[in-house]
Amino acid sequence: MKLLEGKTVLVTGGSTGIGRAAAIGAALHGADVAINYYTRDEDAESCVAEIEALGQRGFALKGDVALPATATEFVAQALERLGKVDVLVSNAGICPFHAFLDMPVDVFERTQQVNMHGAYFMCQAAARQMVEQGHGGAIVAVSSISALVGGEFQTHYTPTKAGVHSLMQSAAIALGRHGIRCNSVLPGTILTEINKDDLADPEKRKYMETRVPLGRLGVPEDLAGPIVFLASDMAAYVTGAALLVDGGMYVNLQ
Ligand SMILES: NC(=O)C1=CN([C@@H]2O[C@H](COP(=O)(O)OP(=O)(O)OC[C@H]3O[C@@H](n4cnc5c(N)ncnc54)[C@H](O)[C@@H]3O)[C@@H](O)[C@H]2O)C=CC1
Ligand SMILES: C[C@H](O)[C@@H]1OC(=O)[C@H](O)[C@@H]1O
């Protein structure tokens, strides 16, 4: 069964990793898909090629989510090229691992701007369009297990993920009357570009694997099903919710 037949889905940071898996997952479920991305044109082009190979329409638009204008332009282009906006997957994010005591101000500020401001502007722009269309919609934000637990080298990052989680809760209230549902997924440790260097240390990787009751780290495709589900009408009465997708890592105390 295709869960997103006839829908138009927008994905930020859709060229690699979790965003790409969500974009392809949405296309597999019958959606036309627009992706935003920031670097590496070839990754974005190959993602669009995969979407089109599945028989769906797709396009990629380069832009920095930290800037409000990127959000308005992304939504405007989606409207012009795909006709409407039904779903936003707010996924773009960075995690430049760094110690707390000597955190450079620019690394701290950029992490807030991309992860938190970016999610806010994108969700607001998509929601404005959904309200204008008048037939509801769904927003799925990629938060993190890090919204709930800390990380020594993520003191600038974890508050942004708690912020995204909180944004979905408040937006669910603000947008419920318009039939727009807002939920978040909370991935555990998923093997992507964002943690390639951090997990290059075999000891660290082994340790992270042992934390997961299901016995392995995640792959981007592990997020596709939960994101498609929350975006779809199967989740018609789900809003303000947060879904851990972590192989059980969060509950693994001992
Ligand atoms: N990989 C993991 O273990 C986890 C990742 N996440 C979150 O998942 C999201 C996606 O990350 P991954 O797929 O893991 O890594 P990734 O590095 O493969 O993907 C990040 C995506 O965001 C885009 N991006 C980065 N800065 C941007 C900007 N300023 N404007 C527009 N796009 C920008 C990149 O181009 C890329 O497409 C992030 O929000 C991250 O915080 C959450 C929990 C765990
Ligand atoms: C980038 C990290 O590996 C990843 O980011 C998160 O949000 C997870 O908590 C992991 O630490």
Automatic annotation (TrEMBL):
Pfam families: adh_short_C2. GO terms for biological process: fatty acid biosynthetic process; rhamnose catabolic process. This is L-rhamnose 1-dehydrogenase (NAD(P)(+)). One of its GO terms (molecular function) is quinone binding. It catalyses: L-rhamnofuranose + NADP(+) = L-rhamnono-1,4-lactone + NADPH + H(+); L-rhamnofuranose + NAD(+) = L-rhamnono-1,4-lactone + NADH + H(+). The keyword 4Fe-4S does not apply. Keywords: NADP, Oxidoreductase, Rhamnose metabolism. The lineage of its organism: Bacteria, Pseudomonadati, Pseudomonadota, Alphaproteobacteria, Sphingomonadales. Its EC number is 1.1.1.378. Coiled coil: none annotated. Pathway: Carbohydrate degradation; L-rhamnose degradation. It comes from the Bacteria. The keyword Chaperone does not apply. Belongs to the short-chain dehydrogenases/reductases (SDR) family. It comes from Sphingomonas glacialis.
